[in-house]
Amino acid sequence: GPIMPKDSSKKDKKEKKEKKEKKSKKSKKESGAASGAGADAAPESIREPTIPVIVSDIAKPLAGKKLGLDVLRLVQKAALAKELKRGVKEVIKSIRKGGKGLVVLAGDIYPEDVISHIPIYCEEQGVPCVFVESKQQLGSAARTKRATSVVMVPDKGSLGSRASELLPAIKELPKM
């Protein structure tokens, strides 16, 4: 192909770099405005999943619409307070160390084997657990860009009291 002079490629790189910096500054401003002062920011509304959700057979006890939204709001508050444990590894580690709280699992995880041991482990350790329909909803409530399979809301302060308010309704849900 045609040989370009060296200085033009340097110029192009510089322009690209400047554009990238402008973009990152703009996104930082937007995210800073959206998050506000951290824990004080009002939680955003939880949207219905955009794609149809296929809930697994092992997803019991599965929270209904209203209870599911309440659980997701609790997860949102815990994420804002930076108290949330996210992911299989972190949740299992927390329970193993004697951590108490509410474990929230996504009902549409495939393959099921990834999280199938968690409800049994929770039951053995006396930690309440509940399924919500969508991993996408759980991920957005947990303030992550990715879908999330499992989170744990620790039993601390106002989060613990809010979780204990939801416990009677969770315990009434049909088990396996």
Strand order of the largest sheet: 1-4-2-3
- Helix fraction, binned, reads 40-55%
* Structural class label: alpha+beta
Mean pLDDT across the residues is: 81
General form: elongated
| Radius of gyration, whole Å | 21 Å
| Multimeric status of the protein | single chain
The strand count comes to 4
Straight-line distance between termini: 67 Å
pLDDT under 50 segments (min length 5)? Answer: 26-42
SSE order? HHEHEHEHEH
Number of helices: 6
Strand composition percent: 5-15%
Largest sheet: 4 strands, mixed
Q: Please, could you describe this protein's structure?
A:
The protein is built from six helices and four strands; from the N terminus they run ααβαβαβαβα. Helix 2 (65-80) runs parallel beside helix 5, helix 2 packs antiparallel against helix 6 (157-172) and helix 3 packs parallel to helix 4 (117-125). It has a four-stranded mixed beta sheet with strand order 1-4-2-3, with helices on both faces. The chain is α+β, with helices and mostly antiparallel strands. Residues 26-42 have low confidence and may be disordered.
